[in-house]
Amino acid sequence: MTDSALPEDDQTPPRRRGRPVQMDQETREELVLDAATQMIAERGLEDASVAAIARQVHMSKRTIYTMFDSREALLGACFARIGERIFRSRDSQTEGAPLEDRLRHLLTLNEEPSLNEAPLELLRAVITSAPTYPKLACSILETGALSLRTHIARELSEAAERGELALRPEQCDPAAEMLMDMAFGNGIHKLLDPQRYCASPEARATRRDRAISLFLDGARPR
């Protein structure tokens, strides 16, 4: 499903009676991104067309295209925001805490009830959209898993500089990826059998803590 720059079937939704509500550009964009996020989480990427989003927010497609110049740009902004909500970044409050605690902070996904199974939809979107929208697929990775890997690699690198870990600088990125795989599991399995592999928050926390413990036992100096 694709949307051209300004499709011929663009129709402005019926006007509501009364004085129209005035919104600034930022508020409009937030409204559109909220609708797109909910649509992706509930119905998947293919149903999140510009036309459907426009109907949801009572705007015309033309109005949306003044904010995002393509469907790919809109979905890219949407996924960037989803990634920021779900994945954590380094926190100044954990600075000075033990390495285990800093890694635990990064490897804990934020619970976003409104997104439901959005992490799974993110992975599905990366796979299904990659051939048609390669730039979108790359942006999903860059604002999600790759961004998180960068934060973890930085923690590992700084710990190695302090002598806490026996890692060379060039080993930190692959080590961060390995730790993420250990903590989160195989996403392909979750796509194939979500009922079996989508664990509870408690089970995910147990796996995360075990992964950190096993990883650090193998990475600390002997």
From TrEMBL:
<dbReference type="InterPro" id="IPR039536">
    <property type="entry name" value="TetR_C_Proteobacteria"/>
</dbReference>
<feature type="compositionally biased region" description="Acidic residues">
    <location>
        <begin position="1"/>
        <end position="11"/>
    </location>
</feature>
<keyword id="KW-0238">DNA-binding</keyword>
<protein>
    <submittedName>
        <fullName>TetR family transcriptional regulator</fullName>
    </submittedName>
</protein>
<feature type="domain" description="HTH tetR-type">
    <location>
        <begin position="26"/>
        <end position="86"/>
    </location>
</feature>
<feature type="region of interest" description="Disordered">
    <location>
        <begin position="1"/>
        <end position="26"/>
    </location>
</feature>
<dbReference type="InterPro" id="IPR050109">
    <property type="entry name" value="HTH-type_TetR-like_transc_reg"/>
</dbReference>
<dbReference type="InterPro" id="IPR001647">
    <property type="entry name" value="HTH_TetR"/>
</dbReference>
<dbReference type="InterPro" id="IPR009057">
    <property type="entry name" value="Homeodomain-like_sf"/>
</dbReference>
<feature type="DNA-binding region" description="H-T-H motif">
    <location>
        <begin position="49"/>
        <end position="68"/>
    </location>
</feature>
<dbReference type="Pfam" id="PF00440">
    <property type="entry name" value="TetR_N"/>
</dbReference>
<dbReference type="Pfam" id="PF14246">
    <property type="entry name" value="TetR_C_7"/>
</dbReference>
